[in-house]
Amino acid sequence: MSDQRFMSDRPARAVLRLSSIAAVALLAAGCAGRDSITVGSVPDDYRTNHPIVISEKDKTVDIPVGIADRGLSRMQRVAADGFIAGYDRSAAPVVSVMVPYGSANQAAASVVAADLVKRLRAAGVPEGRILHQPYEASQYGDGAPVRLVYAEMRASTGPCGRWPKDLMDNAENRHWANFGCSYQNNLAAQIANPADLLGPRKPGDIDAQNRSHAIDQYREREIAPDMRSNREVFY
Questions:
Q1: Residues 80-122: pLDDT tens digits?
Q2: What range defines the domain where residue 102 resides?
Q3: What pLDDT sits at residue 6?
Q4: Residue numbers in the chain where pLDDT is lower than 50
Q5: Residue 10 falls within a domain, yes or no?
Q6: Is residue 80 assigned to a domain?
Q7: In the prediction, which pLDDT does 17 show?
Q8: Rg from Cα positions in the chain
């Protein structure tokens, strides 16, 4: 009698076991589906939406000129030196000196522009790479500036401040259009040499003496004197 009861319970146990396996499989499938939805709902990347691009752009500075100016002032010299500090002498792009005419300070601007040309040459701008360009400046009144312009390779991104959609309209949990724009702009502005984004630089020469000294210190478990004086932890 007990054997018959045991034989009759086998189909019920098999059905229960299959049901449990199916339930576990469904739970696993549900978890996998949920993870794929979460990951797939954020396919965009701020580096893709706001890429850093290397292109040629004009570097410009306006040198204010007063009617009574008879040469470069200290403020004008500082502005000109800061403008030309990053000039690539190997590429030697043309520097345009745009001088106002038709304005009240036309005569003073001509004198200041001549001094600026001398300062640009002293800073390393080659002969023949400075271009004089007059511009009509009667609309500027008494304060028409002398503008200096040259083209340089620069890392930059597109303009920020795009808000095409409401931030609350984001059921798919995507990045908004302006997300990461300011970060990319700041990063591009801090890059001294945009060519570093294109590939690594050529390795420099090895200082064999310094390398040998560093290896000896490592083998003897020593601390370099400059590090010993600047360290914060003392053993």
A1: 999 999 898 888 999 999 999 999 999 999 999 999 999 999 9
A2: 54-155
A3: 43
A4: 1-3, 6-7, 32-43
A5: no
A6: yes
A7: 60
A8: 35
Per-residue DSSP letter, 234: -
Do the domain assignments include residue 233?
no
Look up residue 99 and give its two tokens. Answer: 């001088």
Helix (H) or strand (E) holding 123: none
CATH code, domain with 109: 3.30.1330.60
Specify which residues 136 forms β-bridges with. 101
The structural domain count of the chain equals 1
Helix, strand and coil percent figures for the chain, each rounded to 5: 45, 15, 40
Q: Is residue 222 part of a domain?
A: no
Supply the pTM of this predicted model.
Answer: 0.60
d(CA 118, CA 102): 24
Largest CA distance in the chain: 124
Contact status, residue 94 vs residue 127, Cβ threshold 8 Å: no
